[in-house]
Amino acid sequence: MSTDTATLPVGRYAYDQVDRTFLSQRVAQFREQVGRRVAGDLSEDEFKPLRLMNGLYLQLHAYMLRVAVPYGMMGADQMRELAHIARTYDRDYGHFTTRQNIQFNWIRLEDTPDILERLAGVNMHAIQTSGNCIRNVTCDEFAGAAADELLDPRIHAEILRQWSTLHPEFSFLPRKFKIAISGSPHDRVAARFHDIGLVAHPGPDGRPVFDVFVGGGLGRTPIIGVHLRDNLPEEDLLAYLEAVVRVYNAYGRRDNMYKARIKILVQALGVEQFREKVDAEFAQMNRADYRLEPAIVEGIRARFGIPDLDAPADAARKLEADRKADARFDRWVRTNTHTHRHEGFISAVVSIKPDGGIPGDVTADQMDLIADLADEFSFGEIRVTHMQNVVLGHVRKDRLRDLWRRLEGAGLGTPNIGLVGDIIACPGLDYCALANARSIPIAQKLSARFANPELQENIGTLRINISGCINACGHHHAGHIGILGVDKRGEEFFQLTLGGSAENDVAIGQIIGPALPEDETVDAIARLIDTYLVLRNEGEAFIDTYRRLGAASFKDAVYAPA
Amino acid sequence: MPLLENGHVTEDRWAQAIAGEALPAGAVIVPLERLEEGLARPKDAPLGVAIGPDVDVAVLRPALPRLGLVAVNFPTFRDGRAFTQARALREHLSFTGEIRATGTPLPDQYEFLLRCGVTTVQTDRTEDVAVWQQAHEIISIAYQPSVLHERPQGLGLRRFLVTD
Ligand code: HEM
Ligand code: SF4
Q1: What is the pLDDT of residue B164?
Q2: How far away, in angstroms, is A180 Cα from ligand 2 center?
């Protein structure tokens, strides 16, 4: 099949007629299933797995639809459609999630087939955004752009998307299954907190190979993924993953949903025995049937549009001059950009965390604006990050200031990426049927409290992650400061964990003491941060000081205010 | 529900072993516990075995040459272990006989069953066979190879499903 490379969407896999047929069949199938449900031919119990396979949850107040953004990549056209859906079928909002997807919180069941049809019109869907199947594969938000990248992970993320989509054997696993893939030595995907984390890099002969981590996860039993093997050749990628998931499907616990994740199996068997089982399965597979041929990889790579990176020779110098001329812009560049592999370009992070705002929430108008800016400044390409922000991957340095001005005008120019205002928060009790406490108000209060950008920069790198319950959707265990909502006799309390990290220095945060009432939590965190500012050595981030001194030095600040 | 084969109703030529009774002479499906007893019958008497989802199908290896049918079970549609059992029977043990899905799989899982190597379905569910037929026909494309070795489509992993 010939492809006109000039018209391929940049950064993501271009659908063709076959992919589109597949989606429209799925929409027809779901329409039929909704019909059977409405007619009473399917019980709620039977309908549930079917709707979950189309990303439809029943939440506290309404249905919630989680739309897949495969490996976080989408185009301006797709973002505009999401804006339309937010306006027409929701209350004008969408919510970016830590799984690089987008959720709509106020959906009617009857509208869902129409929404899915509209999504299919722009080659989007909600398949496998929930349910006990292989979920949306996540990926580095700077993929294909980052200066430190060894290998663009999106091609293999797309291969995994295809492989896992309606996989006949793995669509009814013991529990949901999450895969993340990185192509950089700097872990930006929390590889060790996934059921499978893949780190891709070129092998000795230049062909891609993968280091495989397995059995990581958060939730009520946080576990750091164990190292299963190094240098898995590309051609065996699918065979090996089949072997891992097959072992999990056969032996994962099904008697207790809290013990059903692969992390529990890996811990129960021990890494050695788990590895033996996987290797035994891998050894007896007919590997030819599963071989990922270079031609397939290239065929998929060929359906990714690549940006034509062409910047004026003085683009970098122009940016330097712009920064000198404007201190506010300079600050935003310091905090909200990432080094691009091309010296004339830079990746810009659009903070979806305005001071006092709800992390990850975007209005329909903001979505439209982001789409316009992507068209104007970044080849129509948009990335959703697992920190609930948005990235424009390839912005010419000499045009960065123009972009920033436009973002500022729309309330999207907050200079807080990686700082205390860049909070991850799950929907919590405001929306979620499982929550013990509200996550959003705490996030809002903290972000308002630390709104001053100078103060934020002075505090430096600090990850605050908030979950409304033990399920840990807000990654609280992986936060430098983690906040977990707990219920004490009907009242909202918050437990603090310190020292977590999802990056190369991966760690699970430790609980420092009894949970705090809602109205004390923000003050306690403020005192914690003040204490760090006093105790830190030159150049230390919060996590460094915490690791140097331990929890004891911070306990007093939290529990014994002066 | 009647026995389904490739979306169509077919006749069941197998009898089930009845607990506490001697095995009948013709084609019979025995539970795993009675496999030895089944194997002791004359070599030309058709024999099938029904296994639970927690069984490692490798235990059937010595008996497989004598087996015409393996029944795998879905105690609930959520329990997907039988998909892996069916695939292992086809791929690792090269079993070519009938694989029958029993229990309560959903019609919406029909394509998955077939692609993992199941050939017949006999469920305790009550809906119209037409629902199963429809489920079999509604999706014509899959994104990964399966035991059916469907015809590849284009350069990706995509396959055309066979619906006859
Ligand atoms: C609003 C409806 C939601 C429900 C009902 C829900 C439910 C759950 C449950 C039950 C778990 C624990 C799973 C387990 O460990 O077995 C979980 C984990 C998780 N969820 Fe959610 N969640 C929701 C929203 C979200 C959102 C909005 C995000 C992203 C912001 C998210 C991301 C995650 C992550 C990252 C985990 C931890 C996964 C792990 O341990 O591997 N969820 N969720
Ligand atoms: S952590 Fe709990 S409260 Fe928050 S979204 Fe997940 S399930 Fe809901």
Answers
A1: 53
A2: 20
